[in-house]
Amino acid sequence: MPSHAGADFSFVHFTDTHIMPGGTWQGLDTAVSLRRVMGVIVTLEPKPAFAIVGGDLASPDLIDRTRVLTSAEYEPAYRLLREIVGVLPFPVHFILGNHDDRPAFHRMMETRAASADTRHHWAFDHQGYRFIGLDSHVPGNAWGEMDGAQLAWLDADLDAHAGQPAIVFVHHHPWPLGLAWMDSMPLRNGADLVAVLERHPTARWIVCGHVHMDQQIQRDGLTMLTTPSTCLQVSKLSQARKFSAGPPGFRLVEVKGRTLSTRVLHLHGDAGVADL
Ligand SMILES: [Fe+2]
Ligand SMILES: [Fe+2]
Asked: In this structure, which ligand is nearest to the CA of 172?
């Protein structure tokens, strides 16, 4: 196992792509917005090692909120998402969010899951670091939750990789932001997740989507980071539900030895990387 002391790489976290073929969200074409973000990410130097996509991948449910869609009706959204992120010349790892459909995701993204309802959690090593993705999707609910089996799996994985710094990804935020609307739909048992992470001092960051804004919260050695959406953003001030049409954003993380560095990039105006 290579030590993380010599690590030298970067990766991106982009999230809440909300792909919905044939529809728009508050007048915004989420696919066009995601293509713009991809257009910037492919120009990054040095090239990132991988991408994590933080959930709310597909959202055809937002086109017609008067009924519950079938899994089959989600399939075109995942097909389009695959096509759009297919321009990235490095591996892409997906997280599920509240708007997703787990069976359609497994089928269209060819995850080789044991069953249509299998939780999509995963882990991999990169240059001595441990990367772990969790699944907080609960069908039919805006909030998230993790069952005991997944928390036990996380605990065991961190135990088995006790010498490696770990970065954990989950869609829903375990700690409140201080904004009432968003905090009405958190990771409901976030305290359980944090309790597991706090048993493992190697767990450095937990990186979330869902909230459509960037925020950082630290408690002792654990830091929660949230990343803006690739489409609509949520007000950082309003206690009530309030969206704004962009700007699209994503998070870049640079890892050098024991140092983790991160910044959020927003795409202002019509141009891409020249504006950043
Ligand atoms: Fe979202
Ligand atoms: Fe969400």
From this structure: 2
